[in-house]
Fold each of these.
Amino acid sequence: MKLSIVIPVYNELATITEIVSRVRKAPFEKEIIIVDDGSTDGTRAQLEVMKRHPDVRVLFHERNRGKGAALRTGFEAVGGDVVIIQDADLEYDPADYPILLRPIQEGHADVVYGSRFLGGPHRVLFFWHYIGNKLLTLLSNVLSNLNLSDMEVCYKVFRREVLKDLPLRSDRFGFEPEFTMKVAKRGYRIYEVPVSYRGRTYQEGKKITWKDGLAAIYTIIRFRLSD
């Protein structure tokens, strides 16, 4: 089983070298596809060095288009059997790949979600982020008839064939609810497993804001009513 690990990147100079190093150490056959989404902090120059590795492919957006747009670009390049979405900010640990992959390897799942709320170790941070996440997950569950605990989680792992059935459109963080609604409507087998989480503060580079939460509500309703 070959993995395609897709890493969307925007202004992550402080972490990009370390996250790629951790991903490369994961004990699986893999390709690493990095999509730089118009970084302006020197990340692009660092990626020019990294793409010399034979297992690393780097794609560039000339301007910032959003996480969803970067993921779509990465998905077009995947060649593995299973796709893993990996953020570049060190909040999520590639050491969790084995537990994320197990339901697919055992033939039980088409899609696996990590969850920050099922007992894995996590940094204690923002109460209102937690409440916002829970409310968005609840709304998504009501309209999708799923019982996820963490719809907004980065770690979404799925068989490559799933991509052929998903006309993804969201450019920013709306990718998370759009993907969730579409895999639910198509009846894919979904599992959820606990993962570790080291959240960042805004001073450390966190990018998502309350505006993205409002956009997520719109996205959930939009893709419940359309394809």
Amino acid sequence: MDSKYLAIYNDIVNKIEVGKMEPNSKLPSESELMEAYNVSRDTIRKALALLETNGCIQKIKGKGSFVLDVNKFDFPMSGLTSFKELAGKMGSGSNTILKELELISGDKFIMKQLELSEDDEAWKVVRVREIGGKKIILDKDYFNKKFVPDLTKEICENSIYEYIENTLGLKISYAKKEFTVQQATEEDKAVLDFENFNMIVVVKNYVYLEDTSLFQYTESRHRPDRFRFVDFARRR
């Protein structure tokens, strides 16, 4: 019966979720699963195919099937939340690794995003975000120097938003966001713990102050298996 492979699928998913099958552990072979569940090879293969489709396992040719980490962090699509605030809500150990901090000018693309002339200056801040011991976000932030005249390593490793609001006294108001799924770049694979994935979720933010001044452009690159992008919607 077709329902058999669904029952096997649900049983394995439950074992993964409760920790009986740990991330990166190898699943039993098809023959062992056939014996354990007393079903045909075709039924087992249907269950494994569904597990792979839904991101629960990764099949590696010649090696077998391996359990993926199904625990995902909620990333709010609406609202403006700093990584420090987001990590606090997740309750997982987090760390920020500063890769670049410099003033730039003459970059046509970035200056266009910030609505600046090529002669204007902007801060470029590149940070890797580590959660639960895994590097899973690459953040590239650009700030208009007119509004953020100075940045330090300590500020960037703590919270730039906290510095802007509490030290500079500016009020961050709203943002325009763009979500896309793209092919991972060599940079993504080099700086993140990317494992076997080849796609990445890119969130672009254009962030404005209370007086509608655009002060920040951000490109935040997320490993696709570790986040749920969530929102609350109401029909008007």
Amino acid sequence: MDDVTAVLDREFPARRVAETTPARRGNTKETTLVRFADGGGVVVQFSADAEAFRTELALARAVRERTAVPTPRVLADGSLGGRPYAVVELVDGADLHERFSRVSSATRRRLSRGFGRSLAALHESFVFEDYGAVRVEDGRTGGEGDEDAGAALRADGTESWPSWFDAHARAGVDALPTAFDGVRDELLAALDDADVSGSPTPRLYPWDLRPGNAVFDGGDVAAVLDWGGPLSAAAGLAAAKVEHLVADWYVADGAPLRVAFREGYRSVRPYPEVPSVYRLAAVVRSAVDSHGVVTRPRYPELEGKKAVAFHRERMCEWLSAASPSDG
């Protein structure tokens, strides 16, 4: 008996499985889509990182409880053979990563406004005491036993905002492969010159809120799927990255999507201050994945030198805009 079958027998002993389809999602999870013979389905996920997975599930539950951001329900979680697993509601629809560049321009603008509203709702609902990685508090589960799953989430940083941001941005530069050596010194110089003084309110920075992690029902986003790797940071830094992943990632002219994204955000709360150095850091931290592999924008996806060129162009755009007086 394989592990997916074992989980299904444990959690749904009375239901017969009609079909299972592996669908790897992310670098640390094994994902299988399951259809039942009597209709409906679930997603079974196994993770290689128990602590990170516990945080991701707690945040997913809290987002569903606190906001209207469409988030699949976590139906069950546990451990099998030492591997943590979760069973999550299966939401029908298409992968928005494949559709976003192909839908009409009006639909793209509407979807972009929706992403803006979603980020603003998260900023309204999740405020922390510190900056840094968000984790489930020791001794808490962030699961069904907690009245509010979000109450178990804490940011583990103790540094000031300028110190945390500088370390965060420089870690991104350090992770860039040699293909970016031609721009590395300029990036570091921009960070040296940056003025990010102050103590902005630490708010949720969802690491991967983007079309590529959404289900599209033909008209709107039906589900946001990935809540892994959350941070607590200035709202402007989160806005810079999500706006980049929505407005710049898929189409050549992102200006209309940028406007729509900000309109959506402002329909919930005022748009935060976003210095150019925040946008620069957002591009840098989006250019490679957790294994240091260059990420692939657009769809069909750019690869190799074309992907590097995309990221370098965005970096140069914000290098030219960043200045000591900009922050």
